[in-house]
Every structure is written in structure tokens, then in C-alpha cells.
Amino acid sequence: MDIFGIPLQAFLGQLMLGLVNGSFYAMLSLGLAVIFGLLGIVNFAHGALYMIGAYVAWFSLEKLGLNYWFALVLAPLVVGALGALIERTMLKHLYRIDPIYSLLLTFGLALIAEGVFRDQFGVSGQQYEVPELLQGATNLGFMVLPNYRAWVIFASLTICLGTWFVIEKTKLGATLRAGTENPALVQAFGINVPLMVTLTYAGGAALAALAGVLAAPVIQITPLMGSNLIIVVFAVVVIGGMGSILGSILTGVMLGLVEGLTKVFYPEASNIVVFVIMAIVLMVRPAGLFGKEK
Amino acid sequence: MKLKKLTAACTLACAALLGAAAPAQAQISGDVIKIGIITDMSSVYADLDGQGGVEAIKMAIADAGGTVAGKKIEVLFADHQNKADIAAAKAREWFDTQGLDMLIGGTNSGTALAMAKVAAEKKKPFIVVGAATSALTNDQCTPYTVHYAYDTVALAKGTGNAVVKAGGKTWYFLQADYAFGAALQNDTSNVVKAAGGTVVGTVKVPLNASDFSSFLLQAQSSKAQILGLANAGGDTINSIKAANEFGVTKTMKLAGLLIFINDIHSLGLKTTQGMYLTDSWYWNKDAEARAWSRKFFEKMKRMPSSLQAADYSATTQYLAAVKATGSDDADKVLAHMRKTKINDVYAKGGYIRDDGRMVHDMYLMQVKTPAQSTEPWDYYNVVETFKGETAWQTKADSKCPLWK
How far is Cα B383 from Cα B390, in angstroms, rounded to an integer? Predict the structure, then answer.
């Protein structure tokens, strides 16, 4: 059986790969959406935080002898702390003025981080072995799926849905959302709003780092890995609707699939298809697929 | 009166002497020799040339004594970010406002083709080191372009023939979707077909793609024996990595058509052992190369790629020609370079043909196993040396009107 001249097996295989890439998009765009939705910051440093997360994993394996599972905990903590530091010392001062300034600040920070890592490690990058437990591959009948990629899909979807649940369905999430809606009032109830804001940014940074650790064994760890991805992820957030958390997750997965199919039918266009979709969505629904008009 | 005459005569004579000397001095325009390099300093190809290439040029200048014909030597460098328009604009700016005497072209074929046009228009020497496309010495050859290190024809002849000879008859290509990938795919296809092989398909992948697994599965379903990687740098690294992960290497053999030692270094010998590749130079190939490379290592903390050695050589040869002719006039210097054999750490008995090709030996190498490697960066066994003309495009196949 063929679908548009492509054997069904190959077609399913490509969908599966699209799902893997989609889960990366979902995880990164989720962090961006949380930071934008709750703080109104367009966090251009997100790609750099993702890259630093991967380097923390590499560094802890090579220099400290800590394996993948430790890195999975350590990297988000380290990068989360870095995020908190950035928010406390720099971003804090920019809340009262035009969001364009926080965008420029985070963009500058990303360039600095990239430059420092390039100077230290070069662009060819570092290798990170797939952890022993997840080595090998499973034959699904229509394709051979490396176990690690299956783990990526599982891990990122779990994390995405968990984050969505915490923000949308729990009391903590409700306080967070209220705090960003009307900080003065929430503060009056005795809740420490500035601390909440710092933790939110740190949380978004930690999500980026986690994605970095998940990506480390799959791609070469290079200083450029963040900037290669961040533009696509921004497009995902715009398509999903800025600030919509569930929207960014669904859009991430969906665009991974669309991109995967483009790689089969017209590979040359695979790196622009996301932007074509973005242009169309912006014309039809300027607030994005899941965004609310304000 | 007599004294006055004497003084006048003396003055005249002195003036005549000065006059005679002045043009010789003015042979070096602007009283300084300016050498520029425009290359990828920050992206996928930056480790192959980049800052290390600039350092190699500086080493050549230092070894020449820092001056030539009594004039200071300066280096300019810029990052073209793999964009042809930036490369061309920068080259034009340097020729017009900086008095640039010679331009070295770094990695990326698209940028090299654009800069070649500018250099030809400005009538200045343009020595291409990092770019691979054979178009530079074929339909787009100019009297001012010298293609120094390697090209897609030589890579195809080297690796292509070796792989077909070893039994790899059916090929599928993973091609970087720009000038270089197209040239490498085309030149290798010709070699494979001429040797009795067939090409069953090609997938064109955007430069700097983040994920290669999808393209690799397409290659695998083609049932070809050989997967030809017509890409470079980070793209090659990521495709080899994904090929191992998805088990493509179990059913197909990989033929990396352009692999640099930096790629092997970051992939590791475990992943790359046994692979064949063609390169123009290897740091560990003889004592002279080793000695120079150790000096380079002290500065850059990594061994030089073939391109960085070629940057050193090109600068050395250019400065020697300036010294010999006492001039930085492009035509005089190039004429001298064309009739002088090149003998240095990079090439032995090399010479520049009328199409601009610098003819020298090329090497087919095989990546060592982890057990065979005795020190960091000790990665290759030289399997075969392609002597002089045998490595390069023949006159019969050339499309360059300057070489007919």
C-alpha cells in the first residue's frame, strides 16, 4: 500500500521521526510559552540555555564522572540557578518598560554565551554517548526505532503535560497566573510575587536545560545547537499563540510531523516549511491557533 | 661658479638616482603588503579553517620575517557567515578602501564563487583554500583565481574510485543543498559511473539541518550499497552519528566524500574506524609536517587541518613571489607564482596550471582503529598517494577557456 507514491512503511517511519523532533519543539516552546505567558518576556536566551544544559551534561560526564541520569537532574538545577541569577540581576529592571528591551537583553546574553562556548570548545562539538540502559533499537515492523528516541518522546510528553497540569489545574498555578495578572493585589494577600516571578523564569530555563540533556546523545553538542533551533521554536510559539501553554505543546508536536513529511516529499523545503505555515497562520489568525484575541 | 656647477650636477645625479630608485619603491602600493582572509569564523565550518587559518597565515608572515621587500605585512580577516553576498561585499570593500593586495578564500563554495568575480573585476590575486567546488577552475575560472588545496573532482576521483574498486557499485547520495554539495555529487557520480557503478538516487538536505534521521531512512530504503555523504563539517558529523544510531551502517557502507581531521576528532575513532577519505595533507604524514604542526598546536591547542596548512603555504608562496619580483602588482606576482615550483611543508613539486589549479599530490587515507592510534590526533593511515596530475581534472574534461 502506498501513500502518495511512498510505501506505507516508510511513511509511518517518517511520521515517527517527526514525532521525535516534534517533542523537542514542544518542550522548548513550552518553556518559552510559560515565560512569555506569565512574565511577558520574549526570552531569546532560550536556545542558549538549552545549549548550556547539553554542555552541563557533557561536562558532568567527562570531568565529574556523573552519568546521564544525574545530568538529567543536575543540568536543570544549574541552568535554573543561572536563570534565577539573570532574572534577579538584569531582567527585573526591565519589567516596567517596553518588552522590546528584555528581548534585546536576552538576545545579547545568548550571543555572549554562544561566543564564550565557541571560544572554549570550538564548533565541531562534543560527543555524548547514549546511556547504556537506552542503547540498542526496537524493530517496530515499519522501522527500526532507536530506544533512545522512544525515550525522548516519552520523557518530553510527560514533562510537557506535567507542566501544563501544574500551571492550569493546581492552586500553585492559579496563584502564579493571578500574580502575573495583578501583582499588587496578590502581594496584598501576603504572597511573595517577585520570588514567584524569579522561580517562573528559573523554571522556564530549567525546561530548556532538560531539553538540552535529552538532545545531547542525539545530536552533536555544539555552541550553535541553540541558535539553530530557537528560530523554529519561536515560529512554533507564534503559530500556537504567544503564551498559550497547551497550544505550544500541540503545535510543537504537529509541526514536527509536518516537517517530517516535508523531508520526504520535498526535502529542500524542510527548513522553511514551518515559516510558511507561520505566515499563513498570522494572516488568518493573528493571535495564533490557540491564542486569545486581546 | 665651478662649485655651483658641481653642486647642480650633483643634485641632478642624486635626483636621477633617487628617480631611478623611486619606482622600485613604489612597486609596493601603499607601502604595505595586505593579505586578507574571508572565511567562516563562527559557524559549521569554523574549526576547519576559521581562527586557525588566520593563525596559520600569521605564522607564515612571522616565518618570512614580518616584512617583505622592506615593507610591513598586514593581515585582515572577516567572517562571511556562509553568505555569498557578505563575502563579496567585504572583498570589494577591502580592495577599494583598504588597498588589499591578495585575498585568501576560506570555506564555503558559494562565497568563493562570489569573491572570485570581485577579485577578477579588481584584477587582484584570489587564492582559494577552503572551498571545494571544481567550478572555480572550470566554467568560472579567471586569470586571478588560484585554487590551492583541493577540489570536488580530486575528492571524487580519490574516494569514489577507491570505494567502487572495493565493491561498492550502487550509490545513494546525501547532498548539502548548495553549490558545493551539487558539485561534489555531480563529480562523484561521474567517477562512479565511469568505474562501472550506478547512482540510484540523491536527497538534497538544507545546509546546517538539525536532524538527519529522516534523510537517512530514505537512503536506506533505496537499497544502495554505498551512502555517499556529499556534505561537510557539522553536517557530515551529524549524518554519520545518526547513521550509526539508526543502524543504517549495518546495511550500507558510508563514503564520506569530504572529511576533515576535525570531524574525525569530534566523532571519535570508535565511530569512524575503517572509513576511507581523501585529503590534501595530513599533519602526521612526515617529519616536516609533524614539526610544523606541533608549532601550530602550541598556539591553537589542536592539530592543523589540511586547509590551515594550505593557508600557511599559500601565504608563504605569495610572499616569496612578492620578494622575488619586488612588486605587489597582481599580474607580475601571479606570473612568477605560475612559473615557480612549490616546495614547502604543504606540497612538494606543486605548480599552478593555466586554469588556476595548484597541482600537487593527494592522499587516500583510512581511519585507524582505536588500538592503532598511539596519541591524540593520530588518526590516519595513508593508503595511497595520487601523484601530481593523476589526482586532478584532465585537460580533456576541463571547461576553462584559459586552459585550451
Answer: 16
